[in-house]
Design brief:
- The complex is a heterodimer of chains A (185) and B (164).
- Chain A is mainly α.
- Chain A has two domains: 94 residues, RNA polymerase sigma factor, region 2, helix turn helix motif (Rna Polymerase Sigma Factor, Chain: A, Orthogonal Bundle), CATH 1.10.1740; 86 residues, Arc Repressor Mutant, subunit A (Orthogonal Bundle), CATH 1.10.10.
- Chain A is built from ten helices and no strands.
- The longest helix of chain A is centred in the N-terminal third of the chain and has 23 residues.
- About 5% of the residues of chain A have low confidence.
- With 164 residues, chain B is mainly α.
- Chain B folds into three domains: 57 residues, no CATH class; 44 residues; 30 residues, no CATH class.
- In chain B, helix 1 packs across helix 3 and helix 2 crosses helix 4.
- The chains are: A mainly alpha (185), B mainly alpha (164).
- At the A-B interface, helix 2, helix 3, helix 5, helix 6 and helix 7 of A face helix 2, helix 4 and helix 5 of B.
Chain lengths: 185, 164
């Protein structure tokens, strides 16, 4: 079967049998979102890349015992989330690093993109200022488009806790971004 | 009855979490319809919805574009597998690890002791043909070249003791 057509579960089964090509397909399919999630949680590209790499090595390790109980991506994001939190704990005393690789990796913004670029930095800063738990659920909800149930699966928190954190996160962001909202109409 | 239920629902203010899901377009059709019905007649909820929708849109400005691929080479996975295999062997024979550590510790101790002994005992200068101390002949021992630095001379020993 073409690797590109195989489901994630099929690829995990093949990986469990030692087919490393399946790992390549899984990495190709999910690396973008894994890296984005790790970056948003950590605010640092280098550490995000370490987390992404470790995530796929964990897949390789766990493939033999993998049993598809939850959605594959929920399970995958849980690994990313936990590894990212381990990374965060290592630098807990420091503020959330907001590196600007995003800026460096893109071409210099054109005139019309300057405002958008500034807004992106403002939003990133506002999200970075949320409490740890609010930030996590917001990223999973807004950027990874996970349902409440999936967020519960990734974080291990109850549904009521997730919903409460989401409401507070959006409310805090509304207040933080209010000046920009007023300014830009 | 159905109409009454709808009216009751439409009189309640929408919950924040439902407005968030409405903006995210993740509500089921029935609930979405009920919320829109309520919003038509509720300026307070309309204002809250507007704030959430604006925040949602602004958050969309933070787009992340990973610059490169995650480097997962076959070599890395293979080396990881070899490490796992090696670890598995050690785990199957847990005593091996302890025995290796003990042997290494003994070897290091012996080497350090030998090197320390060589450098800490100074050779005693003796003239060629000088007879060894008398206690050697009493003990029926011969003074070999390799042991000569370790043998105390009768005179020097007595002199050192007397001088101290």
């Amino acid at each position: 079967m073409d690797d590109g057509l195989a489901s994630d579960t099929e690829l995990m089964t093949r990986l469990g049998r030692g087919d490393l090509a399946a790992l390549g397909t899984l990495a190709e399919r999910h690396q973008g979102r894994v890296l984005s999630l790790a970056y948003r949680l950590l605010g640092d590209w280098h550490r995000a890349e370490d987390v992404a790499q470790e995530t796929f090595l964990r897949l390789r390790q766990a493939a033999g015992q993998y049993e598809p109980q939850a959605k594959f991506t929920t399970w995958l994001y849980r690994i990313v989330h936990n590894l990212s939190m381990d990374q965060r704990r290592k630098v807990r005393n420091g503020p959330l690093s907001l590196d600007h690789d995003l800026v460096e990796r893109e071409d210099a913004p054109a005139d019309g993109a300057v405002e958008r670029h500034e807004l992106a930095e403002l939003v990133q800063k506002a999200v970075g200022e949320l409490s740890e738990r609010q930030r996590r659920v917001l990223i999973l909800h807004r950027y990874e488009e996970l349902s409440h149930e999936e967020i519960c699966g990734v974080t291990g928190w109850s549904r009521s806790a997730v919903e409460s954190l989401l409401v507070r996160a959006y409310e805090n962001l509304r207040k933080k971004l209010m000046s920009y909202q007023d300014f830009s109409g | 009855m159905a109409r009454l239920t709808h009216e009751v629902v439409s009189m309640e203010h929408a919950k924040d979490i439902e407005l968030i899901e409405l903006v995210a377009k993740r509500l089921d059709a029935e609930r979405e319809q009920a919320l829109w019905a309520h919003l038509q007649d509720c300026p307070a909820c309309q204002a809250r919805l507007k704030g959430i929708a604006r925040t949602w849109d602004l958050l969309g400005a933070w787009q992340v574009r990973p610059g490169g691929d995650v480097r997962i080479s076959k070599a890395e996975v293979s080396s990881q597998r070899h490490e796992e295999d090696r670890a598995a062997v050690i785990l199957r024979f847990p005593g091996v690890k302890t025995a290796l550590r003990t042997a290494a510790a003994i070897a290091v101790t012996v080497l350090v002791g030998y090197a320390g002994g060589r450098w800490s005992v100074r050779p005693t200068p003796t003239a060629p043909g000088t007879p060894g101390p008398s206690y050697l002949s009493v003990l029926n021992l011969e003074l070999g070249a390799s042991f000569s630095p370790l043998v105390l001379q009768d005179g020097s020993s007595a002199g050192q003791e007397g001088g101290s």
